[in-house]
Amino acid sequence: MKKNYIIILLTILLCSVMACKSEQKKRGNMEKGTLVRIETSVGDIVVKLYDETPRHRDNFIKLAENGTYEGTLFHRVIKDFMIQAGDPDSKDAPRGKMLGSGDVGYTIPAEFVYPKYFHKKGALAAARQGDNVNPKKESSGCQFYIVTGKVFSDSTLLGMESQINQNRLTNVFNALAQKHMKDIYKMRKANDQEGLMNLQDTLYTQAQAEVAKQPEFHFTPEQVKVYTTVGGTPHLDGEYTVFGEVIEGMDIVDKIQQVKTDRSDRPETDITIKKVEVL
Asked: Which of 139, 141, 121 is nearest to 69 (CA)?
């Protein structure tokens, strides 16, 4: 009997040790990345910065530590889309002042870790200027947004996939046409409709061949699962750098997105960032 008790005791101890190690391993995986608390006038939001986007991570930490974000506003809030902040010009900004163009004098090269990190609800991403002036999709040195988004149906996601693939073809065609602008102008001036149609057919065929070299775009199973249950903003994927996510305080994010805003999407009652602290 004593031997049996000893065996049982050893088994219990062994299971306890294994469970402890498992919990430590689990905790260690959760702690990867850098945690940052964003203290706002309506509550705190804790985000995790990804190690796989080191330039964005380090820049956010630098701005947090030097106080750049203190006193700035959530200056652009759109329900079921996102909440945006980080504009230095928003500090003590009077009502009616146009916000969203402030910066810190530099941009950050894009760091797309896609499709691992995408625009799910709660994603932290960098704002940026549009493709027409920013073809490399470089991020703002300071402005960021947190995704709120909405839940999509499977059929809507399929439609998005089709549109994205069509846009790829259009973009390649436009790029090819740009290289033939002199010829196009000449044919237009000469009212050479046949020449224009022949060139169009040639460029379209070339564009199709170019696009065919790459696999068609499809959302991953994880994206489909998240976008049809939790929600997000899938049309932003691959366009803006996602460099973190909310791990605490999503209720505060939802509270912010519900506030009343003016025609510029600025909250009628200012929502201020009091402090950003690295934990």
From this structure: 141
**What is the C-alpha separation between 49 and 53, in angstroms, rounded?**
8
Beta carbons within 10 angstroms of residue 111's beta carbon: 19
Which one of 2.40.100.10, 3.90.1010.10, 2.170.150.70, 2.120.10.30 gives the CATH number of domain 32-150+230-278? 2.40.100.10
Q: Other CB atoms closer than 10 Å to residue 208's CB: what's the count?
A: 12
Instruction: State the residue for tokens 């709660």.
Output: 122
**Nearest-CA neighbor of 47 among 55, 39, 57, 37?**
37
Structure tokens at 37: 């608390």
- Total Cβ atoms within 10 A of residue 143: 24
| Average pLDDT over every residue of 11-26 | 46
Chain centroid, CA 121 distance in Å: 10
Q: If you average pLDDT over residues 31-60, what whole number do you get?
A: 96
pLDDT for residue 214: 87
How large is the C-alpha radius of gyration of the chain?
25
Both ends of the chain: CA-CA distance in Å? 52
pLDDT tens string 169-186: 998 999 999 999 999 999
Q: Where are the domains of the chain?
A: 32-150+230-278, 155-212
Rounded to 5 degrees, φ, ψ at 240 are: -130, 145
pLDDT bracket for residue 8 (50, 70, 90): very low
Stretch 228-246: mean pLDDT: 97
Q: In which order are the strands placed within the sheet that holds 76-78?
A: 76-78, 82-85, 144-147, 123-126, 242-248, 43-49, 34-40, 273-278
Alpha-carbon gap, residue 236 to 175, rounded angstroms: 22
What's the one-letter identity of residue 16?
S
Q: How far apart are CA 262 and CA 272, in angstroms?
A: 16
DSSP code of residue 90: G
